[in-house]
Specification:
The complex is a heterodimer of chains A (about 120) and B (about 110).
Chain A lengths: L2 E5 L3 E2 L5 E8 L8 E7 L3 E8 L6 E3 L7 E6 L4 E6 L8 E8 L11 E4 L3 E5 L2
Parallel strand pairs in A: 2-11
Antiparallel strand pairs in A: 1-3, 3-8, 4-5, 4-9, 5-6, 7-8, 9-10, 9-11
Chain B lengths: L3 E4 L2 E4 L5 E7 L8 E6 L6 E5 L3 E2 L7 E6 L2 E6 L8 E7 L6 E2 L3 E5 L1
Parallel strand pairs in B: 2-11
Antiparallel strand pairs in B: 1-3, 3-8, 4-5, 4-9, 5-6, 7-8, 9-10, 9-11
Classes of the chains: A mainly beta (about 120), B mainly beta (about 110).
Chain lengths: ~120, ~110
């Protein structure tokens, strides 16, 4: 059974940084692209960033470019996102999600497994 | 980026009735790359349909997807109480992948 467990969410002040982690199990982690998707009551679901199975391909939403850095450690079956210069509008539930197709580019594709999410609140 | 508009916002139906959820794209979706997800309160989204019409294995065949170009539909043929949830469409034909705002299905 695929399991994705996020951690690292917290209450942070605007302008500060935060690193989220996602630990995977139940599938061959290094065969699949992985993604971060966030959800807010106002904007709904928003894809944030994706990284290819070997880490070579990385894509960001415009809202994340220049501030967020996605990475992965295939040995530890873990996905990360480093978020800098956080803004109140980054407040959201952040999900880790698995690409459905083996060896797919993270640029496209659908998501067949999601974690339960970790909450990030940006407020002074 | 492609904007997806879902309608109606809320659908309130009785068990056994048919639910028809619409997802309209601002431009044609390449290869009909549309997915549908179900999300219940406090839970993660679950994949229901991909490729516009291919059903995910964990969902019964009461759930079906159709459509092409800019207009797509998720149909739940015989509603059951456990189908109460918010359903989102997503396009993955043109980066960045984008989601609709969701349709809430309520069971009377």
């Amino acid at each position: 059974e695929v399991q994705l467990v996020e951690s690292g969410g917290a209450l942070v002040q605007p302008g500060r940084s935060l690193r989220l982690s996602c630990t995977a199990s139940g599938f061959t982690f290094d065969d699949y692209a992985m993604h971060w998707v966030r959800q807010t009551p106002g904007k709904g679901l928003e894809w944030v960033a994706g990284i290819g199975w070997n880490g070579d391909s990385i894509y960001y939403a415009d809202s994340a470019k220049g501030r967020f850095t996605i990475s992965r450690d295939n040995m530890k079956k873990s996905l990360f996102v480093e978020m800098k210069s956080l803004r109140p509008e980054d407040t959201a539930l952040y999900f880790c999600a698995k690409d459905a197709l083996r060896w797919n580019t993270p640029e496209n594709g659908y998501l067949d497994s999601w974690g339960q999410g970790t909450l990030v609140t940006v407020s002074s | 980026e492609i904007v997806l508009t879902q309608s109606p916002g809320t659908l309130s139906l009785s068990p056994g009735e048919r639910a028809t959820l619409s997802c309209r794209a601002s431009q044609s979706v390449s290869s009909n790359y549309i997915a549908w997800y179900q999300q219940k309160p406090g839970q993660a989204p679950r994949l229901v349909v991909y490729g516009a019409s291919s059903g995910a294995a964990v969902f019964p065949d009461r759930f079906s997807g159709s459509g092409s170009g800019t207009d797509f539909t998720l149909t739940i043929s015989r509603l059951e109480p456990e189908d109460s949830a918010v359903y989102y469409c997503q396009q993955y034909g043109s980066p960045p992948r984008t989601f609709g705002q969701g349709t809430k299905v309520e069971i009377k």
